[in-house]
Amino acid sequence: MRDRIADGKRRLGVMGGTFDPIHHGHLVAASEVAARFDLDEVVFVPTGQPWQKGHRSVSPAEDRYLMTVIATASNPQFSVSRIDIDRGGKTYTIDTLRELRAEYADADLFFITGADALAQILGWRDAGELFSLAHFIGVTRPGHVLADPGLPQGGVSLIEVPALAISSTDCRARVARGDPVWYLVPDGVVRYINKRALYRDPSQPTR
Ligand SMILES: Nc1ncnc2c1ncn2[C@@H]1O[C@H](COP(=O)(O)OP(=O)(O)OP(=O)(O)O)[C@@H](O)[C@H]1O
Ligand SMILES: O=C(O)c1ccc[n+]([C@@H]2O[C@H](COP(=O)([O-])O)[C@@H](O)[C@H]2O)c1
């Protein structure tokens, strides 16, 4: 990571997600927020066990981590953190932000969420404390309404990003059907999915 900028606090974006797989919707959202909010860096944080996705199988964390590394490697502003994977247990953003706060004591944190995730945020663990640890940035996502769900005043910014109607769910379904995911996910991620035979069999082992 780059050194703290001399003329002020570092501005650190945090893009949390299950990234099963990471796709261009995630990358465009992070890139757009980085530009609009003058961020020094965006840290992608793949979830360990995403408790709200418990109704479906989730690919092994190492596969999701490696796909995230592959997808972000060419952008010097992007990095990937293992903190949610290495902590073990269910992933809660309150833990993510507490750890990042401790690691980057002098940085301002900006947590990036799509409109669908933002709508659920008041149901996240310790939601009341979340907003003291980071500023939240809600981004538009096709098929979802972007709105402030009632965060403390000044706690959230809502911004429009280029509309990409891509979801990980659709990418997985396409692979299972034998349809292409080229140009929905980065080329290296397509190759990784093929190499590891991910998503071909919906009943394959998980986590
Ligand atoms: N196309 C998109 N445009 C804007 N934001 C997105 C887009 N896809 C995902 N996001 C946001 O990225 C974050 C991580 O998303 P996640 O990894 O769950 O992807 P997903 O496509 O929603 O996955 P799934 O289809 O498996 O639920 C969430 O805040 C989500 O709202
Ligand atoms: O903290 C929580 O209770 C919580 C509940 C659901 C989702 N999140 C976080 O929201 C981000 C997007 O999650 P997901 O499940 O949409 O991939 C990711 O960083 C999750 O850890 C956090």
UniProtKB/TrEMBL annotation:
<comment type="pathway">
    <text>Cofactor biosynthesis; NAD(+) biosynthesis; deamido-NAD(+) from nicotinate D-ribonucleotide: step 1/1.</text>
</comment>
<keyword id="KW-0662">Pyridine nucleotide biosynthesis</keyword>
<dbReference type="GO" id="GO:0005524">
    <property type="term" value="F:ATP binding"/>
</dbReference>
<keyword id="KW-0547">Nucleotide-binding</keyword>
<protein>
    <recommendedName>
        <fullName>Probable nicotinate-nucleotide adenylyltransferase</fullName>
        <ecNumber>2.7.7.18</ecNumber>
    </recommendedName>
</protein>
<keyword id="KW-0067">ATP-binding</keyword>
<keyword id="KW-0808">Transferase</keyword>
<dbReference type="InterPro" id="IPR005248">
    <property type="entry name" value="NadD/NMNAT"/>
</dbReference>
<comment type="function">
    <text>Catalyzes the reversible adenylation of nicotinate mononucleotide (NaMN) to nicotinic acid adenine dinucleotide (NaAD).</text>
</comment>
<comment type="similarity">
    <text>Belongs to the NadD family.</text>
</comment>
<dbReference type="GO" id="GO:0009435">
    <property type="term" value="P:NAD+ biosynthetic process"/>
</dbReference>
<keyword id="KW-0548">Nucleotidyltransferase</keyword>
<keyword id="KW-0520">NAD</keyword>
<dbReference type="InterPro" id="IPR014729">
    <property type="entry name" value="Rossmann-like_a/b/a_fold"/>
</dbReference>
<dbReference type="GO" id="GO:0004515">
    <property type="term" value="F:nicotinate-nucleotide adenylyltransferase activity"/>
</dbReference>
<dbReference type="InterPro" id="IPR004821">
    <property type="entry name" value="Cyt_trans-like"/>
</dbReference>
<feature type="domain" description="Cytidyltransferase-like">
    <location>
        <begin position="14"/>
        <end position="174"/>
    </location>
</feature>
<dbReference type="Pfam" id="PF01467">
    <property type="entry name" value="CTP_transf_like"/>
</dbReference>
